[in-house]
Amino acid sequence: PAACAQDATKPSRSSGRLAPFAYPWPMDRRCVIAGCGYVGRRLADRLRPEWRVVALARSPARVAALRTAGIEALDADFDTVHLPDELRVATDGASIAYLAPPQDTGTNDARLGRFLDALGEARPTVFLYISTTGVYGDAAGAAVDESSPTEPSNDRSRRRVAAEQITRAWCESR
Description:
The chain is α/β, with parallel strands linked by helices. 30% of the residues lie in helices and 16% in strands. It has 5 helices and 7 strands. The protein is globular and about 45 Å long.
């Protein structure tokens, strides 16, 4: 099932008004946004005040800016070995929107690996991983979707394919 679907009975973005999220299962309306930059901040603004949002950012300045905007924020640099202990509690039963990009080198996403390790036995309700169309390679203008074969042509896209596989396996193990 889709993690999130629009309720067709409500106004959509095209009408100039935002439609609420619809989800077929009860949720406690907590969302942890891992990598709360440009897109994450807009997601946080969209979810609040109906949802409790916890944003993870890697710089103290970004954490302070999020808190000033009224968003609960944790300092979580995925390039370090130790992530905040509060992460397990914040993510258990919550929705996770993972928006952090992988590191600049290699073919695996070490940041995602550290994040998932830090979650311990936490069981989120939804895990949304944002990837890139680069995982499909050059489709020469053809349409691609999640069922299209992955054919990454560079290490950045290979890191994303690896991250998708790691995320899928992690979620299935729950």
